[in-house]
Amino acid sequence: MATRHNLPLQERIPIKNTFQRVSSLLILTLLFSLLLYRLTSLHSHGPIWLIAFLCESWFTFIWVLYMNGKWNPVKHKTYPERLLKRSDIDLPAVDMFVTTADPKLEPPIITANTVLSLLAVEYPAHKLACYVSDDGGSPITFYSLLEASKFAKLWVPFCKKYNVRLRAPFVYFSSEPQASQALSQEFMDDWRHMKNKYEEFSRRIDDAASHYMDDELADFSNIERGNHPSLIKVIGENKQGLEDGIPHLVYVAREKRPKHPHHYKAGAMNVLARVSGVMTNAPFMLNVDCDMFANNPEVILHGMCLLFGFDNEASSGFVQAPQQFYGALKDDPFGNQLVVLQGITGPGIGGIQGPFYAGTGCFHRRKILYGSTPGLAGVSKHDELSNKEPQRIYGDSRELFESASQMTSGKIRETSCSNNLSSSVGVAKRVASCTYEFNTCWGNQIGWAYGSMTEDVLTGLRIHSMGWKSVYLILDPPAFLGSAPTGGPASLTQHKRWSTGLLEVLLSRSSPMVATFTKQLKFRMCLAYLIVLVWPLRSIGELCYALLPAYCLLANTSFMPKASEPVFVIPLALFLISNIHSLIEYFQCGLSVQACWNNQRMHRIFAMTSWLFGLLGVLLKILGLSETIFEVTRKDQQSDTNDTDKDPGRFTFDNSPMFISGTAVLLVNLVALAVGLLRLYRTVEGGPSPGLGEFVCSVWVVFSFWPFVRGLVGRGSHGIPWPVILKAAVLVSLFIQFCGLEWVH
Question: Which sequence ranges are marked TM in the entry (predicted)?
Answer without folding.
Answer: 21-40, 46-66, 527-548, 568-584, 605-624, 658-680, 692-709, 724-744
